[in-house]
Structure prediction request, 910 residues.
Amino acid sequence: MKRFLHNRVALAALIIFTLLLLSCVVFPLLGYSDYESLHLDQQYAPISLQHPFSTDNLGRDFFTRMMVGGRYTLGLSLVSTVLAVLFGTVIGTLSAYKGGLLDRIVVSLCEALSAVPYILIVIIIEVALGWGKGYFSLAIAIARMPSVIQTIRAAVLSVREKEFISAAKVLGKSDWYIITRHVMRNVYSTILVQFCSTYGASIVACSVLGYLEIGISSPVPEWGRMVADYFHLIQSRGHLVSIPCLFISVSVLCITMITNGLRDALDPKEYQHE
Amino acid sequence: MFKFIRNRILGAIGVLFAAVFAVFTILTYLPGSRLRYLPIQGENDLLDRYFALIKASPNLLTRYLRYMYNIITRFHFTSNFRHHDLSAEILTRTRLTLLLTVLGFVFIVVFGIILGVIAAHKRGTWIDRLISGASMFLASIPPFCLAIYLALIFCLGLKLLPVFGYAKPVNFILPTVTVSAAALANVIQICRFQVIEELNKPYVRNLQSRGQRESVILFRHALKNALIPTVSVIREMTATIFMSTFIAEWFYAIPGIGYYMIKAINSRDYGVILACTVVIAIFIIIFNIISDVVYCLLDPKMRSKEMGYSQDV
Amino acid sequence: MNNILEIEKLNVVYRIPEGRRHVLRDVSLELKKGEIMAVVGESGCGKSTLVNTIISLLPSNAMIESGRIIIDGKDITNADSYELSSVRRNRLGVVFQDPFSALDPLYTIEKQFHETIRLTEKLSKAESHDKAAAMLRACGIKNAEEIMKKYPHELSGGLRQRVMIAMALINDPTLVIADEPTTALDVTIQKEILQLLRTLARERQLTVLFITHSQDIAFEIADRITVFYGGRIVEQGTRDDLFSFPLHPYTQALLNTIPSIRYGKNERKLMPIEGEIFSFLNETEGCSFAPRCPYARESCFNKAPAVREYNGHKCACEMEEKW
Prediction:
């Protein structure tokens, strides 16, 4: 962790992203929560404390919409990241540790799924299960899961070959004990890095689907959805499009930098050099 | 090698049939919310008619085989839902998407390798930092954000390029950039990394000690070796490239397959979704086979293995 | 002007985050035409840096602080890149340690030969083919034609090292540098490669600088031997001189580490060298070997040992009374 905190870029990214996340949580609680009631008399209101980012074409407070939208974009992708990493880790670990037929099935499924654009996976899941926030998160989680499984599987495979695992087996420890005590301790850094990179990819997926008007219906101010909703105003009111765009870009960039920082900090190989 | 390619194609066709069968089944049997969205206000008999239709129709496998048979023999996409022929529409849209994707691929390969080699050659300098930083930025942000930045800069700010339309070549500049950006950034990163790796290998020292020219070492040796992992990364990026293609089509209103499919999703036209899925699956499989062949041509180890030479190492 | 290689008082310094590391100190050696010189030393003593300096491929954080390197009458210490590559093309042949990675895996042996030959003379494909095949045969490869059509990964380690030697010799270099050419090979193949190098050297009057960490190999192949320790030359002389009268305590200790298989009364005790391996991390101004030397005195730790010479047998040690 100390090494991570010494990395100035990653630290700055972490601070910016935390501020962004916190403001999305806090501001709606402070009264900026009405994102859908229309005030057609207050179109493009002047900037004030009540409307820090002015209002949109329907008189809705743009700042509120951004903050609530952040809850959707960052929140939904967080849920799907947790799902993807949780199930991805379990499946990846079991597949690598047990091997055999299970492993082969998992590997070929992952290969097939990762060769398909994720929009198709999301669509099929949506069609099969229905439309809604929960299913939406689940769909993104399933679309992101193959890469998590593949990475965790590779990490567990490399740990499994190590001698201390054979030693533990010789000592008669149970598989559960070995996995929880030895394997997990050695792949936790991989899981952490995967969590970060999956979160970035999920935010991208979430905003892309929002932008394509799939899965999220109109009044919900998801950032990608907002880009699509205001796109016809790009010439007259460009900020309505560019601000959500900027927020998405900044949060994804921050996550990328945090991921890179974590990867550098947790790489045991580099650790030995110092 | 021909045997290898033949096996790949046969395998790919198998995968295609299996994948389409899976999607076909899901779209037929797991309608989930599908009935909810049927226009059934006051017309209960519509629902009955729908179920009657399903009962009257032959079983799943027969319908699936008939569906595939129609595609293969006549390029005839049938729709269970609308009962009209989609093939003409699919065909014209496929052309546009294919054009955009191929342009994107060319852009990725050409600029990815050139910029990657430049960054590797000038490693540590500001040029390298600029290229690496820009590629990190492009690799992270979603394609539609990039498209909007490009539109704001080039169309509204500088008024250089048109936003919409797909008739003139100039219309394809921004879509191509949008299609390729994410994958391009990845290819630059991997190509730079691999070229640097190769330049640190003993055979490069060997060449240098013989007095070989730096440019020959860089291009004929280091780059050619670095291309092998780079090609496999491009292969893995196929899905990303298609995803970006859909977004670019949607953003620039180019009526390709992606545009058609997203429209179909929003209007829940399952026949069109299925047809588009089949076309995309065929695209992906073709691109994968091409990259396999390129991989094979580049790597003599693969080639000799596939040709059945013995390896005495 | 009989010397092919002349190194005068060479000092090489590495810049690392913690400061400077003096890796080569006052290294001087010369090679006469047709001579095989072995450089012996344990890993990390500066042998590889010596090779890299001679072929001017030092890593970017290393620099020559002082001294000169003259190859065949040409001073390369301050040569520009054009002169350097001309020296490398026409006068140098290098055989590297690891034959598994020293050939480009993507080209056939024939193509790599062609490329190498074309660096010095513009021969057609057929001509270079014949030349390469002849050289491969000289290097003990009987089915040369067949080998040349193959890729490096299809050859065994011994074969690849023979190819490397052939490639190093193809342009008639005046100086051949062999950087631990046998270390990565099996013991039986090591012998063959050494045999080959010695025969080639005798037949073609080659001048060879042979780098190795194994004193056995050095005594087997060389006319003269230079012993390295901690970036300095500690002793230099003909093979027989060094074998019969090792002067420096380190050389004596080295000879005692050669295991022998005599049993009974004559059994020589295998003597490991006491102390820790030299590391540039704790360098001193004094003799590098002093911390491990059984005869070390106070002055050994403070003052660099002077080099004394008797009939071409040089030694850098202050222990005069032992001579």
Observations:
- Chain B has one domain: 86-306.
- The radius of gyration of chain B is 24 Å.
